[in-house]
Specification:
2 domains, 15 helices, Aspartate Aminotransferase, domain 2
Length: 463
């Protein structure tokens, strides 16, 4: 694969995937990563849909160093710090009115855990302790810690830990490409009403959803009226709506929040009760996530019997991580990168859609979809019937490996078609990618698809 890979047997660090040797990245600049053998990779998925302003921006490093020199760490139970204050002030200029109380953590999973705990505590403090059930969607992903995993429909992550997971009620996610196999109730939002009816409204704490699908449904957009219906149902039943914008937030889809793409019948914005943010908040420069809650929710907690949110972590509101995220957000603002993600996203989608039209490997492409700098290519065994490949063939993984050999980094996802089968790759480059680099990305993906198709055809019984 590369000239200089230290075998895993000689390393003292271990990574999640233990069945492969990993190249060592020694430099990252713009949309490119460089390994210690001098090989260049185009980071077409921003790591895990994280890098949004590109790698190696000197002013972010400078802001982090300055903060580390001024105040490296204080604990949030004893002190506030200016970086956290300023970042929260900034976010309050982006969120809907009234949703402006930010709590900072490190990972997306932690923000989801804390958001769901906040929802539960809010109901308990208001005298409705029976509200404990969380409703989430399948496919859907909200993280890997146990509560976040409980709310995630990822069978291959869940199976081993099933005895430890809490009971989260799953409803079908809207999935337009596979609408024939998804109920119409899933597409309209009526599935939520039905689930609430079965469980009993007074038992439900929160509904959590990714406003636009992340890797789970591969950048799927629900029908236009979906979130208006969700908001109306949640309001009627006193259920809190948590918009998980960990992957989509901070501009990825061409608006600051993905939920901004949807409006109610009168053209008004859909306002969630709690928003979670992560990846694009920090752009990869420091681990930082946030939950942003309605002020009225935090007011209830403040007046409640516990004296605050019952979720503490040593590194919450970390000054250096907050300074990094603030510098990233200011960079996005100054360079108008959200608008850039929207405009250049159109070129990205045009180029990716052409992959389905011609070239060796086009026959693998069932669908190309997404918005802004978030795209997915869904791979199928039969384009007419949308039949997925059998999981054993590991088609998405094979494509990602072929692409990496060509110096193109993609993100695979599997299992979305029926819980087991289904292959797609995510394309989510930094918003700073140039038009020429978009063309380079698309051509490299076309060649990788051709490589993957050639290998597939060489395998007997592969389709
Ligand atoms: N929520 C969504 C929508 C995500 O896409 C992810 C990660 O991919 C998470 C939560 C969990 O974030 P993390 O991996 O930082 O814990």
């Amino acid at each position: 694969m590369t000239g200089s890979v230290r075998p895993s047997s000689a390393r003292h660090v271990f990574y999640r995937k233990l069945d492969r040797e990993l190249p060592t990245i020694v430099r990252a600049e713009g949309v490119y990563l460089y390994d210690d053998a001098g090989r260049r990779y185009l980071d077409a998925c921003g790591g895990a849909m994280v890098a949004c302003i590109g790698h190696g921006v000197p002013e972010i490093a400078a802001a982090m160093a300055e903060q580390a020199r001024a105040v490296d760490y204080v604990n949030g139970t004893a002190f506030t710090n200016l970086a956290a204050e300023r970042l929260a002030d900034f976010l309050a200029t982006k969120t809907p009115a009234g949703v402006d109380r930010a709590y900072f953590l490190c990972s997306g999973s932690e923000a989801v855990e804390a958001a769901l705990k906040l929802a539960r505590q809010y109901h308990v403090e208001r005298g409705e302790p029976e509200r404990r059930v969380i409703i989430a969607r399948s496919p859907g992903y909200h993280g890997n810690t146990l509560l976040a995993l409980s709310a995630s429909a990822r069978d291959h992550y869940r199976a081993l830990y099933a005895p430890w997971l809490v009971d989260v009620r799953m409803i079908a996610a809207p999935y337009p490409y596979r609408s024939e196999s998804v109920s119409s109730a899933a597409m309209t939002g009526d599935a939520l009403e039905a689930a609430i009816g079965e469980i009993g409204p007074k038992n439900i704490a929160a509904f959590i959803a990714e406003p636009i699908g992340g890797s789970s449904t591969g950048a799927s957009l629900p029908p236009p009226g979906y979130y208006a219906r969700i908001r109306e149902i949640c309001d009627r039943h006193g259920v809190l709506f948590v918009a998980d914008e960990i992957l989509t937030g901070a501009g990825r889809t061409g608006t600051y929040f993905a939920l901004e793409h949807f409006r109610d019948a009168r053209g008004a914005a859909i306002v969630p009760d709690i928003i979670t943010l992560g990846k694009g908040l920090n752009g990869g420069y420091a681990p930082l996530s946030a939950l942003i809650a309605r002020r009225s929710i935090v007011d209830v907690i403040a007046a409640g019997r516990y004296g605050g949110l019952m979720h503490a972590q040593t590194y919450s509101h970390h000054p250096v991580a907050c300074a990094a995220a603030l510098a990233v957000q200011q960079y996005i603002e100054r360079h108008e990168l959200v608008a850039r993600a929207r405009v250049l996203g159109e070129r990205l989608h045009l180029r990716l859609r052409s992959l389905a039209a011609d070239g060796d490997g086009a026959e693998l492409v069932g669908d190309v979809r997404g918005i802004g700098m978030l795209a997915a290519v869904e791979l199928v065994a039969d384009r007419a019937t949308k039949r997925p490949f059998q999981r054993e063939l590991k088609v998405a993984e094979a494509l990602v490996m072929r692409a990496q050999e060509r110096g193109l980094i993609l993100w695979p996802n599997v299992g979305h078609a029926d819980g087991r089968n289904g292959d797609l790759v995510m394309v989510a480059p930094p918003f700073t990618i140039s038009p020429e680099q978009i063309d380079e990305l698309a051509e490299s993906l076309r060649s990788s698809l051709a490589d993957a198709a050639a290998r597939m055809h060489a395998r007997p019984g592969s389709r």
